[in-house]
């Protein structure tokens, strides 16, 4: 949950890194370039997608671009 | 305040139990379109409040494990047969939301016939057709939808029309039929197309909820592994390679005009069945009582284990004889099986059936070592005589077979069944004479209960009396035969 985050953006995206397979489709999809692949690897050996922390509009396109059931949650302000 | 707006649909299980150590992700490759489609479907099930009445039919293909993910009713079915199973589920449970989820190998290759007829019948089901132009699960073989020139493991030089034909356009093909209500092709290569795919899938499900008939959504879906490209490049691959062959759009939409189809398919009420079969009137009452009544095996031995082979010409009614035995046995609470075996001819060829009737459970319906052989023509006696177990019984139609069996270690009844039946009124009842003789000799089933079954299963009322008399005469023959034997001490 984005509790305690600055609530100035319209949206917020959370990637559950252990559920990510690093396909990069969310990065491709995000219209505000809000996502990138982390330098770190998750437990399954993938560079996971990560929200950069600002700019999200809560549009949800990354949610639909992501093939995993629960890897991405999108919040709206 | 931030609120969750796009999140894991509730129609997925909270945890996936497919493999130890990973309870959260699917088994699909990174970037695979199956996952996106699953999500759209699950979200729609949530939104339509249909989780408790959805039946998801998983195919063979990469999505074979979908039942590990969807927290709904699940079936996993034989390759290509999802539309047939979905048909059955929908007809049995008209209020359910039935989803036939299939790949292009499953739907367009091995299951091409199934989908054609389900669509043509306008079955009230929703088909999600995942077209990734390849067999994903088995390692990238050519599918009917593979593109010209496309390299697959079975077309290493590229798909060639002269050898492999053209890519099959399922949406176009099916939309030429009257039956379907709604057919659309969508794709998953950017945000816009994903939104359209979502809309189409929701419409296809909504149609079924409103009982509007057959809906199919073909989804051009990425298979980065099968295509040998990265997930991001697979999006471009769809656009550049698939789109020219598989144009997107609505190919058929009669959603607005189609009335509720399930209401038209009224099941027949059980009490109407005797009337429909012409079993009304006095005889009918007795007969329909017979349908339900099981007779006790009052006068029969407590334990039986009969393995019968009943053989003769096609048209002699020997499969029917076997069914009567099995039915009578079943109504007397015995374990039974009936296995027919016949050639392509309706008349004149050879036919036989295998029947097991036993106090204990039956392992196989196949009878390879019969305890009883009923042979109603010469070829059958010649063929099966030596299969009979030692101490077994052979009943043969001595009107048609001019020589007795050569075996000396079995009991033999030479039964002039055809002549006896002819005297009673029709040679066609020779099968009933044999049935009577079998019971008269072995006492394996209660005779009165058997006659009940003959009453309820004889379709032509005019033949009933004849059949009953034929059973009686066979029965008497066997009893007299037995009395004579004991008289002479043979
Ligand atoms: C009767 C039968 N024949 C063949 C197979 C082997 N087989 C398994 S999956 C498959 C093809 C699946 O391809 P597709 O339907 O396109 O699904 P995808 O894996 O691409 O999602 C085949 C031929 C089988 N399991 N059963
Ligand atoms: S092989 Fe293709 S269809 Fe199968 S899971 Fe991988 S990407 Fe998906």
What does this structure look like?
The complex is a heterodimer of chains A (77) and B (490). Chain A has a two-stranded antiparallel sheet with strand order 1-4. A two-stranded antiparallel ribbon of chain A has the order 2-3. By secondary structure, chain A is of the alpha+beta class. Chain A is built from 2 helices and 4 strands. Chain A has a domain at 24-76: Alpha-Beta Plaits (2-Layer Sandwich), CATH 3.30.70. Chain A starts with 10 loop residues before the first strand and ends with a strand. The longest helix of chain A has 5 residues, at 25-29. Chain B is α/β, with parallel strands linked by helices. Chain B has 2 domains: 34-253, Thiamin diphosphate (ThDP)-binding fold, Pyr/PP domains (Rossmann fold), CATH 3.40.50; 302-488, 3-Layer(aba) Sandwich (Pyruvate-ferredoxin Oxidoreductase, domain 3), CATH 3.40.920. Chain B is 38% helix and 18% strand. Chain B contains 17 helices and 16 strands. In chain B, the strands form 3 sheets. In chain B, strands 3-2-4-5-9-8-10 form a 7-stranded mixed beta sheet, with helices on both faces. In chain B, strands 12-13-11-14-15-16 form a 6-stranded mixed beta sheet, with helices on both faces. A two-stranded antiparallel sheet of chain B has the order 6-7. In chain B, α11 (281-292) crosses α16, α14 crosses α15 (430-442) and α14 (417-424) packs across α17. Mean pLDDT of chain B is 91; it is low at 281-293. The chains are: A alpha+beta (77), B alpha/beta (490). Chain A binds chain B through residues 1-2, 5, 7, 11-12, 16, 18-19, 21-25, 28-29, 31, 44, 46, 58, 60-61, 63-77, and chain B through 1-9, 12, 22, 24-26, 28-36, 38-40, 42, 69, 190-191, 194-195, 198, 224, 230-232, 235. β4 (72-76) of chain A pairs antiparallel with β1 of chain B, so a sheet runs across the interface. Bound molecules: thiamine diphosphate (TPP) and iron/sulfur cluster. Iron/sulfur cluster (SF4) binds at residues 28-29, 32, 34, 62, 132, 136-137, 223-226 of chain B. Iron/sulfur cluster binds at residues 28-29, 32, 34, 62, 132, 136-137, 223-226 of chain B.
């Amino acid at each position: 949950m984005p509790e305690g985050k600055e609530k100035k953006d319209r949206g917020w995206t959370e990637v559950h890194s252990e559920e990510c397979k690093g396909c990069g489709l969310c990065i491709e999809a995000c219209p505000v370039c809000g996502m990138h692949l982390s330098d770190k690897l998750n437990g399954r050996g993938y560079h996971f997608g990560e929200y950069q922390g600002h700019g999200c509009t809560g549009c949800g396109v990354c949610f639909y671009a992501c093939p995993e059931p629960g890897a991405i949650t999108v919040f709206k302000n | 305040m931030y609120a969750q707006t796009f999140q894991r649909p509730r129609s997925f299980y909270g945890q996936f139990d497919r493999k130890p150590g990973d309870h959260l992700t699917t088994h699909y490759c990174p970037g695979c379109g199956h996952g996106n489609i699953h999500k759209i479907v699950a979200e729609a099930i949530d939104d339509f409040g249909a989780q408790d009445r959805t039946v998801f039919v998983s195919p063979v293909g990469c999505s074979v494990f979908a039942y590990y993910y969807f927290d709904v009713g699940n079936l996993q079915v034989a390759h290509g047969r999802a539309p047939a199973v979905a048909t059955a589920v929908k007809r049995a449970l008209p209020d359910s939301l039935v989803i036939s989820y299939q790949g292009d190998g499953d739907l367009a290759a091995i299951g091409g016939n199934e989908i054609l007829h389900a669509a043509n019948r306008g079955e009230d089901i929703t088909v999600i057709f995942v077209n990734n132009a390849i067999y994903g699960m088995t390692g990238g073989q050519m599918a009917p939808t593979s593109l010209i020139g496309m390299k697959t493991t079975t077309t290493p030089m590229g798909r060639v029309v002269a050898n492999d034909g053209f890519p099959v356009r399922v949406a176009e093909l099916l939309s030429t039929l009257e039956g379907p209500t709604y057919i659309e092709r969508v794709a998953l290569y950017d945000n816009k197309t994903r939104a359209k795919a979502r809309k189409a899938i929701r419409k296809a499900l909504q149609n079924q909820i409103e009982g509007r008939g057959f809906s199919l959504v073909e989804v051009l879906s990425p298979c980065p592994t099968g295509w040998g490209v990265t997930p991001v490049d697979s999006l471009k691959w769809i656009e550049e390679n698939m789109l020219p062959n598989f144009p997107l759009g609505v190919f058929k939409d009669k959603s607005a005009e189609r009335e509720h189809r399930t209401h038209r398919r009224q099941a027949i009420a059980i009490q109407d069945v005797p009337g429909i079969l012409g079993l009304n009137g006095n005889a009918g009452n007795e007969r329909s009582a017979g349908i339900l009544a099981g007779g006790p095996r009052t006068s029969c031995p407590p334990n039986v284990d009969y393995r019968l082979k009943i053989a003769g010409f096609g048209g002699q009614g020997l499969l029917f004889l076997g069914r009567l035995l099995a039915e009578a046995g079943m109504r007397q609470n015995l374990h039974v099986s009936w296995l027919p075996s016949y050639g392509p001819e309706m008349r004149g060829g050879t036919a036989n059936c295998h029947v097991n009737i036993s106090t204990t459970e039956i392992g196989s319906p196949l009878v390879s070592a019969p305890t009883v052989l009923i042979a109603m023509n010469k070829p059958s006696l010649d063929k099966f005589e030596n299969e009979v177990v030692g101490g077994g019984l052979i009943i043969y139609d001595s009107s048609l077979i001019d020589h007795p069996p050569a075996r000396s270690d079995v009991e033999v009844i030479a039964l002039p069944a055809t002549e006896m039946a002819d005297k009673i009124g029709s040679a066609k009842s020779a099968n009933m004479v044999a049935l009577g003789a079998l019971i008269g000799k072995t006492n394996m089933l209660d005779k009165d209960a058997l006659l009940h079954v003959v009453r309820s299963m004889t379709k032509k009322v005019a033949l009933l009396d004849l059949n009953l008399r034929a059973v009686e005469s066979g029965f008497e023959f066997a009893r007299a035969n037995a009395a004579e034997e004991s008289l002479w001490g043979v």
